[in-house]
Amino acid sequence: MLCARCVSGNRVEFPSEIAIHFSGRENLAKPHVFVFSKVIVRLDCGFSRVAVAETDLRLLREGIKSSSAA
Question: pTM to 2 decimals?
Fold first, then answer.
């Protein structure tokens, strides 16, 4: 599949570990969510794509809900 940004097919999939932090001063003490996923990187333009697993999505949703409830 060609990249919509650079029209290149030059891509590589890498294993990754991403720490997602909740923004805002009120969330400084909140632990970040580690997401272990594969990242697809376009080597010509740098555009990257990652899919977040449902279990990690649940943690992110819960973290956002608790931030808005405060």
Answer: 0.68
